[in-house]
Design goal:
Elements lengths: L1 H16 L5 H8 L3 H13 L4 E4 L5 E4 L12 H14 L4 E2 L2 H14 L2 H12 L11 E2 H13 L3 E6 L5 E14 L2 E8 L4 E6 L3 E3 L17 H13 L2 E7 L3 H7 L6 E6 L2 E8 L2 H10 L4 E5 L1 H17 L6
Parallel strand pairs: 3-4
Antiparallel strand pairs: 1-2, 5-6, 5-9, 6-7, 7-8, 10-12, 10-13, 11-12
Helix pairs in contact: 1-3, 2-3, 4-5, 4-6, 10-11
Length: about 325
C-alpha cells in the first residue's frame, strides 16, 4: 500500500508538470507497466482528480480542470515560494485578497515541515519591503488582464491617464508586469498601431473580452526592462541627450539599469537619452560614469555641467574655478 501511495503521488506530480503524457512515457518514468498506469489513473479519479484519457496512437493522459479544487502536490521549493508569496500578498498591493492570502498562508504554514518554515521565516526576516502608499489594483481586474494575455484575447477598456483624461482603448494584451508596487499592462494598441504601457489601477474593463488574436513579436528582448525605462521617463521633469565616448555595453556595465534610451553610434561611442528631476543631479550622474561626454541638448544641462566643473576646480584650489 505504501508503494502504491508513493507511486500515485509521483504520478500526480508528473501530470502537473506537462499538459500531456502518453501511457508509455508515464510507465517509463514510474518503472511500471502501462496497465498499472491505467489502474493508477483510475485511483486518482476516485480521489476526484480530473484526469482525462485519450485513446489511439496520439492519445495519452492529462490533468484537467475539475468542479472542485483537488489537493495540490508541491515540492520543497514550490512550497516555500507559495508561502512567501502569500505572506507578501497579505501586505497589500492587490485590492481584496489580503485577508484571503493571510488565511491561505496560515493553513499552509501549519503543514510546512520545520526546515521549510525556517526558510520562509528567514526570507521574510532578512528581506526589506519598503512600503508605500501607492494605488492598488482590483484583484478581478488583474485576473482579467492576466487571463486575456494568456488566452490571446482582445481587451476593451476605459483608461484614465496621469492628467485625468479618459480614453477608450482596444488592445491586444501581451504581459502584465509588477514594478515598484504597481501593476502595468503591456499591450498592442490597435487604434494607435503601436505598443503601449498602461497602469492597471487606471484600467476600467468593458467586458466581455474580444476575439482571439495571433500574438505579435514584442520588439524588445526584456519586457520588464522596457517597462522600467518607460515608467522612469514618464516621471522625469527634465530630459536630455548626451553623447558618451564609450561603447553602449560599457555604459550598461558602469550604470546597471541605466534609465532612458541608449543607442550605439559606433564602436567607441553611444547616444544617451536620459532625464532627472534636476539638471544638477543629472550632471552629477554623468560625471560619475568616468567617461568623456558631450551634451547635445538642452542648454540648461550644459550650464549645470559647467557650474559643477567650476565648483570642483575651486575645491581643488584651481583659480580657474
Amino acid at each position: 500500500m505504501r508503494d502504491t501511495a508513493a507511486r500515485l503521488l509521483r504520478l500526480l506530480s508528473l501530470l502537473q508538470t506537462r499538459p500531456h503524457w502518453s501511457g508509455p512515457e508515464l510507465a517509463d518514468r514510474l518503472g511500471v507497466t502501462t496497465r498499472t498506469v491505467r489502474a493508477d489513473v483510475e485511483r486518482l479519479r476516485a480521489l476526484e482528480y480530473p484526469v482525462s484519457a485519450t485513446p489511439g496512437v496520439g492519445g495519452g493522459y492529462r490533468l484537467g480542470v475539475g468542479a472542485a479544487l483537488p489537493p495540490l502536490l508541491l515540492d520543497d521549493e514550490e512550497a516555500v515560494a507559495v508561502a512567501v508569496g502569500l505572506r507578501t500578498a497579505a501586505g497589500g498591493g492587490v485590492t481584496g485578497i489580503e485577508e484571503s492570502a493571510l488565511r491561505a498562508f496560515a493553513k499552509l504554514e501549519r503543514l510546512l515541515p520545520a526546515r521549510l518554515r525556517r526558510r520562509v521565516n528567514a526570507i521574510q526576516s532578512f528581506t526589506l519591503d519598503v512600503g508605500g502608499s501607492g494605488p492598488t489594483v482590483d484583484a478581478e481586474v488583474l485576473a482579467l488582464l492576466a487571463g486575456a494575455c494568456r488566452d490571446a484575447e482582445r481587451l476593451r477598456f476605459d483608461y484614465l491617464d496621469h492628467a485625468g483624461g479618459r480614453s477608450r482603448r482596444l488592445v491586444e494584451p501581451h504581459r502584465v508586469v509588477h514594478l515598484r508596487r504597481r501593476w502595468y499592462l503591456v499591450a498592442w494598441d490597435v487604434d494607435r498601431a503601436d505598443w503601449r504601457t498602461f497602469r492597471a489601477d487606471r484600467v476600467e474593463p468593458r467586458p466581455p473580452t474580444g476575439p482571439r488574436f495571433r500574438p505579435r513579436r514584442f520588439p524588445h528582448p526584456d519586457v520588464g526592462a522596457h517597462v522600467l525605462r518607460q515608467v522612469g521617463t514618464a516621471l522625469w521633469r527634465h530630459r536630455a541627450r548626451v553623447r558618451l565616448d564609450a561603447p553602449a555595453d560599457e555604459i550598461r556595465r558602469r550604470w546597471p539599469g541605466v534609465p532612458g534610451g541608449l543607442t550605439p553610434v559606433d564602436e567607441t561611442s553611444c547616444l544617451l537619452e536620459v532625464g532627472a528631476d534636476t539638471f544638477e543631479m543629472l550632471a552629477l550622474h554623468l560625471g560619475l560614469l568616468g567617461v568623456d561626454f558631450r551634451v547635445l541638448d538642452p542648454p540648461e544641462l550644459s550650464e549645470a555641467v559647467a557650474a559643477l566643473g567650476r565648483r570642483y576646480l575651486r575645491a581643488a584650489g584651481d583659480e580657474r574655478g
